[in-house]
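Input:
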Amino acid sequence: MNARGLDLTIEGLTVVYGGVTALDDVRIAVPSGGFVTVLGANGAGKTTLVRSITGLLYLHKGRVRRGSIVLGGESILGRKTPDIVSAGVAQVPEGRKLFPNLTVKENLLCGAASRSDLSGIDDSLDQNLDLFPQLRPLLSQTAGLLSGGEQQMVAVGRALMSQPSLLICDELSLGLAPKIVHRLFELLTEINETRGTSILVIEQNASLALEHAADAYVLELGRVLMEGSAAELRGNPMVQELYLGGGGEAHTSYAAIERPRGERRRGRKKPGGDS
Amino acid sequence: MLLAFGNFTADPSVNLQLLIGGLALGAIYAVVALGFVLVYKSTDVLNLAHGEFLMLGAYFALTFLISENLNFFLGVLVLLLVMLVFGLLVHYGIMRRMVGQGFFAIVLITLGIATIIRALLLIFYGPTERARLDLLPQGSFEVGGATVRHVDLIIFAVVAGCVLLFFLFFKYTRLGLHMRAVADDIEAAAAMGIDPDKVYAMTWAAAMVMAGVGGLLFGHVTGAIDRSIEAIGLRAFPAAVVGGLTSLGGSIVGGLVVGVIEQFANGHLGTKWREPVAFSVMFVVLLVRPTGLWGRKDLERV
Amino acid sequence: MTATENPPAQQTAQTYRPSTLQRFLPFIIAAVVPFILGSTTGDLNFWWKAVITVVVLVVVARLAWKWTPRGELTHREDMRLWRTPSDRSWAALTMFGLLVLPFILASDFTPPMGFPWATWFAVVNLVLIFAMGAAAFNLLVGYSGQISLAHVAFLALGSIVGGVVGVQWSGGNMWYALPAAALAGAVVGAISGLPALRLKHLYLLLATFGFHFVMMLVWREYLQEYFGFVGIRFKGENSPRIASWLHWLPGIDPDQNGEFVITGQFRWYWVLMPITVLSILFMVNVVRTREGRAFAAVRDRDVSASLLGINVARSKLFAFALSSAIVSMSGVLASFYIGSRGEDSFNVQTVLNYAIIIVVGGFSSIQGAIFGSAFFWFLPEWFKWAREELWFVRDIDFLSDYPSEIDLAIKGFLVVIILMFKPDGLAGMWRDFKNWLGRTLARSNP
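Output:
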């Protein structure tokens, strides 16, 4: 299970909430052992994408209208979340979503909920604590009282507890100091390289994601606007303008946040026109 | 408080008797409050049908242990199994579809379930009242001029045992951990591969089993078994609130506190003051500390 | 796009303004015809009257539909309670129906198959009283989101005020008791709403439930102090009377003692119907204005509402006061209509009954309260009829052995089923029906 990553192929995925289309004909592929990032602004449909993969749409009254999601040759569309997690998909949810009243250790153990090899869980716990040595002294601390960075580490560790073949991180950088985000991304790369786990990172922080990922997709208003290798996209002038704050700087200025509104409409009319 | 009403009675043995009666009543409240807490803690549902669940338990105890005359332990086992099945029925038949609905809609649906249970019990058992159960030891002994019934001690022991059992279950078992995780954040729990559906089903089953235990115990101390015993469900509310609706241990403490206060109000002020005093205590606790003495606090984000 | 291309002249060409007479004529017809029909007792037989009723219904609806202002509306026109053709024709229909109903129910008519007729008048009057209370309850929990189980406490408060003002002070003058109850209800309601400033959801529900028990204590104490265990008698010498300035009206004759007692279903109908209709219209108006929008904002997120400049505390307390005032008034009406109130008149089952009414009728809908209470009171009637008369139900012993229990079970199942599958209840079905009707009509004459 742990040995190698599985490949994920999403084809023609269309998702609606009531009458609102959140994803429209989305096509994304994560190769086995690959590191892929999906970029996009608020409301681009990033979180919906995660929910579709993990089978959690039903909690938000969403529905897949068309498309397929295949993990390692097996369709996981329409399966229940516990099945999907057992099949090897783990996620770090947006906003961390720790169990605030549980201790750090209990949080980590919850990540292993889908595992049936009870004896292996302790080993995984140890392995994860080696990745995040800071968490060792905090094990019996209530998770809700940790700092944001520590919480995010617990969230990543929790996801790793299921020994996933595909790890999905939703907005890892949200509300965290750049230094911590850098560290987390380095860890993801390490996991990707040493364990062979496929990784799908959903991000707003484009520069950092493009630095670590191999392939990248840009999602806009529920559609795939651009796709290509991370290096390609980093060099793309439109991506630079929209997501990298002009000169490829890590920090976007206020003006850069304002401008995409107009750009977005233009982008919608001729999707993928530049790439 | 006792001094203020000292003109009624200052006889220590009377007060001791009231204290003992209050603790006995409190133990019953604790059984009921435990049922509330179990459901509220993990599903966020305020189950107004718990009194009816308990009534169901009492009537089933009547059927299995008196009418069918089963061996006590076998009968209790059958009772608890049947209650478990009913709990699963409540979840898979009804509550499952209500996940994610508004708070008040869910409260109302539990009222609907309460109505159904009451009506069906009336149809199948009729309105005639039955004698209370007498399977547990009926004797009593004296302490300092006050009578202590054996039944009350047994009830007390059973409640303490149940709380301890649930505490250990939640703290040390995998399923217990998963149940707490679902209570904390259902979506995150689902994302970890925990099936909230199963957890909720377990919760309702556990609550029903607790109601079975409660019905069996309460059936021994109530005046008679008839349709009025569902009122215990509402009367135990102050206990659950004072203890904190999310705390297992709190339900015991809350039960005992409210039971004793009620008994003293009963003894010194008159029967009619029982409910108002208990609910006033609840009211004050709500205003001062809404989450009860041991409840967890939830923050609201805009 | 098209709007900017078309010249504005075309827009005004579609604008239609009926004259004032045309605007009011359907409603005048709806108001007058029932009384003409009612005064012709004996001259026309029942079926002729039924035919005339149906014809007038259709005509009134059609005219109200036709004579509706269309096109560009002034702000005043836009803010009218009945604005669209469909609103206006339903309003005219309802008005006609409410006015003609007592005459129909009072006529001696024997429906086929022993369908219950004689008891319906009493049921209709109960529906009116309960609809008023349930609508006020819905205003509080549905529109303003303040979850309360204390409404039965306010029914009891209504009975207390009815006892003090209506019986003890004035010997059966309900007309003093009603405003007094409204006032007392508003004050006590605002006080009972104080916990809402601090508590929400579950905790508010429990706090109001605590208030219920405190009020029950007050009620029992009051009864025992002044009336003993028999309870308050609101009938006999304490019956309400018709105000002297209405004695000239045709059809109002003194009884043997020369008194104008409000007795019998017909007279009660004319007391209950206007009060219920006016209070419901009042609540509908509150809901659709500024105050009602504040309710909705506070319900959805009170912290955000306060950021928008809404005085959250004021809004919550106002909702409690308004709702409680109307519930208390319905408590007075219920006391005088039913005739006596004792210690067991208010219990947890009463709380449940109101819950059933608002769920079946449609949660958070004021019309829903009317549907719900109609259903609540008519269901046992129909069930009784089916049990006694309907050939394929009559022979099932099981049903006739446990009539009230099966009633209760049906109500419980209905609550569960409606909440599971149709959370907006009968009011939602009614809306669906109106939409369907509108679509069908639009298709037949485009």
